[in-house]
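Possible regression after last week's pipeline update?

I re-ran a chain I had predicted before the update to compare outputs. Posting the input and the new output here so someone can diff against the archived version. Not blocking, just want to make sure nothing changed silently.
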Amino acid sequence: MTGEQNLQSEVEVKQNSSVGNIAMSHGKEIVSAVVIGVIVTVISTVILNGRSSSGEENLHYENIDHSQQAMAKTNRVYFIRSQLSQVLAMVSTVKMHLTEYYMMEGSFPKTSKDFNILHLDLNESDLIDESYLIESGVGVSLSQKFGEDKSLFLIASPSKNNAYLKWRCETNIEPKFLGMGSRTICEFNPELQAL
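New output (post-update):
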């Protein structure tokens, strides 16, 4: 045997003995893990075989409505919500500028000479047809993607001591597109009209 072969055989002996030492010191844990694995496998097999023989695995699928129309309606709801979220993100820049204006001037801008909303480029979006100032906030006429004559208003009201502005969102988009409970994107106002 050469020196290199001796070294390799020593390394193999040490590796084998260290694996053996680990197996000996953790033997109970290894055996327990194997036994538990076997028990779980056997129980799962028995349960699954029992279900397939009784036909239970198909019970849930028979009650699902696979109609394309139902799926399209659900997808449209999520699509409109995502589009509305994009509009709110774009309008938030106006909200920030109007808050700054109010804090500096003590009132909201009355005309486009006081605050030019067009420089914020909201009208370049395919989701917004027109943007304009309202008495205490901003309004947008939404594109046809949201339906006929749909609008969204961000309306501010000052806090008790004028320390900050409280903003609320109102829209005339159907409530089913606005979410429910605490996840409502905007308040529904059927009387909201674009200017």
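Follow-up from reviewer: compared with the archived run. Strands lie at 128-134, 137-142, 151-158, 165-171, 187-188. Marking as no regression found.
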